[in-house]
Amino acid sequence: MTGEAEGALRIVFDFGGVLFNWRPIELVQRHLPHHARDLSSARATVAAVFQGFGGDWAQFDRGVLEADELVRRIAARTGLPAPGVQELVDAVPQSLTPKADTVALLQRLHAASATLHFLSNMPRLYAEHLDRTHPELMAHFHNGVYSSHVRLIKPEEALYRLAGERFGAPGHRLVLLDDIAANVSAARAHGWKSLQFNDAAQCEAELRANGWWPPG
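Structure (tokenized):
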């Protein structure tokens, strides 16, 4: 890949909510409809299932909890019907569709000779699905780290340290694009540059305003 000049910035993409759509309310409305009859109950069910990506789901992201055990734990903890929870867990990979505006941003960065990486909290099953079904997107990345492959998750400091080693760059040469405020704050605390992603237009504008576009 081009764009690996000495000291050049490297752009690090999160996946869910940044490069790929993440719509948990739609998931619970579709697969647990009796527990998502309106927006308020749908939000409550999302909170119960995903626990803010802590608890059981964090262990799934970490790669230390298998999907069947995750389903069992969620159903036992929440009282939600196990078949519906199973449907939801199984449906997540197909729901992670590429965000067209972020794909265009990725392509513009690639055309500008940016060195691109990814750092994603992602269970192994879902990571394998993305790698298998979106090879054209994965080809843009020099390399990347999935949480389940290293048994560390954002916002843990150890994951940023390991990622920096994998990417071959010190923190001040890495720019994380992530939609979760805690992950952005943790990256900055570890010496990375970071932007909280809202949408591709906002992200590109901030990259340019900070002098991080084109990376260099």
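The two ends are 15 Å apart (CA to CA). Strands lie at 10-13, 115-120, 143-146, 174-178, 193-196.
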